[in-house]
Amino acid sequence: MVGRACCVAVCVLLTVGGVGGCGTVAERRDDVRNATAAFQAALGAQAYDRACALLAPGTLEELEQSAGSPCAQALRAKRPTPGSAVRRTDVYGNQARAVLAADTLFLSHFAAGWRVVAAGCEQRPQEPYQCRIKGG
Questions:
Q1: What is the pTM of this model?
Q2: Considering the domain 26-134 in this protein, what is its CATH number?
Q3: In terms of C-beta density within 10 A (0-12 exposed, 13-18 middle, 19 or more buried), how is residue 50 classed?
Q4: How much is the CA Rg of the chain, to the nearest whole Å?
Q5: Residues 114-135: tens digit of each pLDDT
Q6: Which residues make Cβ contacts (< 8 Å) with residue 4, sequence separation at least 6?
Q7: CA torsion, points 27, 30, 36, 42, in degrees to nearest 10?
Q8: Which of 24, 33, 35, 36 has CB atoms 3.0–4.6 Å from 98's, for a disulfide?
């Protein structure tokens, strides 16, 4: 019985510690909102190097490969427009969606923080989003 109680206590501590280490839902939403705002500010300032630093690794690689040029040049050629204020964020574990007035971004959480996986996304009826910037 003591062994079972110890096992239950360890499981509870691991669960609480694991959830606590990820931050609360409100904290994760704030982090997503901040990453989205930083990406939008970089686009607005045409600071494409800063915007590239906020892209997920796969998205950065796909953008450079499809354009045949470094990320900043590829973004400059795509001319993405900032989507303005964040209206809503939805966070599901390590994935998130940020709905802006004129854009939708999808983000994932990495060791370095939240990174943009897709941007310039438009919702289509009965179909998946279509995104101008996305990973492979």
A1: 0.80
A2: 3.10.450
A3: middle
A4: 18
A5: 999 999 999 999 999 999 999 8
A6: none
A7: -110
A8: 36
